[in-house]
Amino acid sequence: MTESAGASAVAEASATCEGPTEADWEAAVAAVRELPPHARVLLVCHVNPDGDALGSMLGFALGLRRMGLRHVQATFPGPHEIPQPFQTLPGVELLVPAEQAWTDPDLVVSFDAASAARLGCLADRLLTAPQCLVLDHHASNTRFGKIHLVDPNAAATSVVAEELLARLAVPLDAEIAECFYVAVATDTGSFRFDMTTPAVHQMAARLIATGLRPGEISRRVFDSRPFGAIRLYGDVLRRAQLDTEAAGGRGLVWTYATLADLERHGQQAYVLEALIDSVRCAIEADVSCVLKQVAEQEWAVSLRSRGATDVAQVAVALGGGGHRMAAGFTGYGSARSVINTLRATLDRLCAN
Ligand code: 5GP
Ligand code: MN
Fold first, then answer.
1. Is pLDDT above 90 for 2?
2. CA torsion through residues 43, 49, 52, 58, sign
3. Which one, 200, 218, 323, 330, has the greatest CB density within 10 A?
4. What element of type H or E holds 208?
């Protein structure tokens, strides 16, 4: 995914932090309610979709189907590879490859994308569609749609999606609930992170009350990986580096995974998403980082903070975005040069 560092850094830095107003909610409800049953609704989420992107999108897609909308497509940019843990999500049959997505839908709804660049080749649909809605929870959201339901205080985009379905009077059922549960569990680290407010647990209670089984879902989504992935984790974690001087003395721990690592162990890229959760445990470093090779000279970079460093600010400065404690960007060049650039940015921002 390519984002020009300059333009997106400026745009994301100037984004507001306010949640949706009552007028925003009313506009969003009207945009959906006004659709005739034969309207075509295209739902899109960010590249390399995670549990919140897919879960919020598919749960909402099912909600629209329950409202009687007959033509609902869901899609994401890039190769049409659905990460294995999400292949059994309800509504997955509504997913189509980006190349097959309607070019002239009546409504486009974007999920969990902080900027148009995160939607890759699908970004133009938001410009050309007669109506478009952006559901998100990133403070760095650039407000690239027409109607915005962007709540930086929401733990996940699915929190926003659940409220919109409630305002549309669509009852939760076990299928919609499973999608939203996977989404909120993903983004809160299974209800461990700071944004796990009473409201998040109240939402989880509503979802679980539909009859879903949290243990079974967590085992499937978080705790099921091929054995080859375990061997791959061993290789990648063994090469982790700790630099206690970095980030103005707060410390940086980092590692990288290459396409050759994936090939050697016969694994798909989604298995790499779990690595950052091991790396960020190092108490000697406030900032943790995993570089995941996407192409010869291109890396998807995950950043995490243990609290002192605002990694969203760091990611935005490098052309990406995210949240204070979890953010990311795309790095170009060798792994070493991406780390050097990251280190320089950390030194600059942490010195302030
Ligand atoms: P992860 O490290 O789990 O991929 O992402 C952590 C957070 O950073 C998520 O909120 C994700 O949306 C955001 N993020 C990751 N990579 C990028 C990127 O390249 N650009 C932007 N704008 N956000 C990113
Ligand atoms: Mn999210």
1. no
2. positive
3. 323
4. helix 198-208
